[in-house]
Amino acid sequence: MAATSALPGVSLREATQRRLRRFSELRGKPVAAGEFWDIVAITAADDKQELAYKQQLSEKLKKKELPLGVQYHVFVDPAGAKIGNGGSTLCALRCLEKLYGDEWNSFTILLIHSGGYSQRLPNASALGKIFTALPFGSPIYQMLELKLAMYIDFPSHMNPGILVTCADDIELYSIGESEYIRFDKPGFTALAHPSSLTVGTTHGVFVLEPFNYLEHRDLEYRSCHRFLHKPSIEKMYQFDAVCRARNFFRQNFAGGDIPSLKLDPEYVYTDSLFYMDHKTAKKLLAFYEKIGTLNCEIDAYGDFLQALGPGATVEYTRNTSNVTKEESELVDMRQRIFHLLRGTSLNVVVLNNSKFYHIGTTEEYLFHFTSDSNLKSELGLQSIAFSIFPAIPECSSNKSCIIQSILDSRSSVAPGSVVEYSRLGPDVSVGENCIISGSYIITTAVLSAHSFVCSLSLKMNRHLKYSTMACGVQDNLKKNVKTLSDIKLLQFFGVCFLSCLDIWNLKVTEELFSGNKTCLSLWNARIFPVCSSLSDSVTTSLKMLNAVQNKSAFSLNKYKLLSIEEMLFYKDVEDMITYREQIFLEITLNRKQSDLETS
Fold it and tell me: What φ, ψ does residue 112 adopt, rounded to 5°?
């Protein structure tokens, strides 16, 4: 095994670019047996999301953006109570059994959890986190392609089983040229990344068995004594999870959402994806068949992995501090899973030259796409990706990011902002740290710093309509209150929500909110106008946003209003894909004309 690289940044970039090139060679071509995954499955939260994912997968296959000869599936959670990504995993196993019977015994399967509504990154809410656009590639890469590229070496060194990952994170790693990550041991195998103790409090942390190597290697196969889920720093010390870096390791170590540990000699190993062999998957499936219906949220990481390793104890099953909603069944279900999996091994693949990036919030999205020079270097991210827009000076360190969009040369986009799948006219000025998605802004518009604008096509009573969510990038759409008298505690663009309703001439009644009337939030507030054209939709929503910022009245009474929750119900995926395709074709034609003029 190769010792830790002298220049980890360079080797990480080279390894990442090699995987991207290899995946690019497979796009649109039939793959040989054992060369790629047998099955790629994506989870969805409900029927609407399932349909949206299937439509997008179909488009990608038609346009030859994915390897061919692979079974691509979308598995939807059963209707009823939320079951978490652990429940989704169990549900996916049942779907595989129904579709393939004993045949899936021999398959390598990639399972991507993408069943959330992306409330912290709402420009991914309509079409899904796994279809989030990235600023590179032609055609543009989305998170799905990046996942497939980064895991390109896994299937050929994997025994039949399932690799479980999430839709909104990126794992980059470098190992020796002649080395491969092997998933060939019974039980579970997880990747581990060196991280600061602070990062460890929001991830899973491995307590590894003692190791006798004198120096760190890029790739180490280790055994895990026990797994801690989002532990306190005190717990990390208590259970001997904290490692102490030698000088050479400290100099090399920095990464992703993990701040540099150059000045900190202590670190922990945190989780990302994990694999389970087929025998373990069958054991979980038999358990799911026996219990029938799940009525509580199971965490694939917290509830499966904490049961593993010789040091695992049942205490964690009673700890509900990290649970958003505590159901009566939860503790009992956790204990049953613990007894089912107890004694199963947890093997750990330690990647000392690796980075883990999370792109699940507006803050992370803006930082990684505009300001993060590391990720830009490693993935080859572009400031202008497959777009028509005047060049941004390369000397600028905090750039804007334009993805598959057409911007008039007289429009302006301030540093730190992202524009995707949009058209901006000549008199449009976008402030700093904004997100503009799927929009068409043709009239004069000044978007204040930290604005969030995302347009959706809707199908209402068989008619095509449009609505645009407009708020602040830092607004907490998930924060909820139980009663109408408490909605003063909600904030819209930094302003008391009650004051906003007054500005918009809207009355505080139960009818103001969709869905659960004891869970009132910006997510289910009926405040976004429905319009007959995309440009009118954006213009109207910008007026309501400007009214709040300028504290000037703008009545929404004459409009049909929807909540974001309702917009997702009425979304017209086909029309949104068509709009993106129109932009794609126009950019392609423009490029061909430019090539002809320069040749």
Answer: -110, 120
Residues 6+ apart with CB under 8 A from 597: none
218-267 confidence digits (pLDDT tens): 999 999 999 999 999 999 999 999 998 764 344 444 445 544 444 468 99
Give the Cα separation of 168 and 106 in Å (integer).
28
Identify the three-state secondary structure at position 270.
strand
Angstrom distance (rounded) from CA 560 to CA 469:
14
4: three-class secondary structure by DSSP:
coil
CB count, 10 Å around CB of 259?
14
Q: CB within 8 A of 366, min separation 6: which ones?
A: 416, 417, 418, 433, 435, 473
- CA atoms of 3 and 243, how far apart (whole Å): 18
User: Of 432, 429, 508, whose CA–CA distance to 474 is shortest?
Assistant: 432
Instruction: Please tell me what DSSP assigns to residue 525.
Output: B
Classify residue 469 as exposed, middle or buried by CB count within 10 Å of its CB (0-12, 13-18, 19+): buried
Closest Cα to residue 423, out of 450, 404, 410, 399? 404
Is pTM, for the whole model, over 0.90? yes
Strands (E), 281-353: 346-351
Cα radius of gyration rounded to whole Å, the chain: 24
Residue 576 vs residues 74, 280, 455, 498, 502: alpha-carbon distances, Å: 20, 40, 9, 33, 33
Q: Are 159 and 183 spatial neighbours (Cβ–Cβ below 8 Å)?
A: yes
Determine the Cα–Cα distance for residues 15 and 214; give it in Å rounded to an integer. 25
CA distance 424 to 308: 53
What DSSP string describes 217-240?
Answer: BSEEEEEEEEEEES--HHHHHHTT
Cβ atoms of 493 and 545 within 8 Å: the answer is yes
Write the DSSP assignment of 352-403 as a string of letters.
SSEEEEE--SHHHHHIIIII-HHHHHHHT--SEES-B-PPPPTT-SS--EEE
Of the candidates 357, 364, 350, 181, the one whose C-alpha atom is nearest the C-alpha of residue 255 is: 357
Interval 338-395: pLDDT, tens: 999 999 999 999 999 999 999 999 999 999 999 999 999 999 999 999 999 876 655 5
**CA gap 300, 319 in Å, rounded:** 16
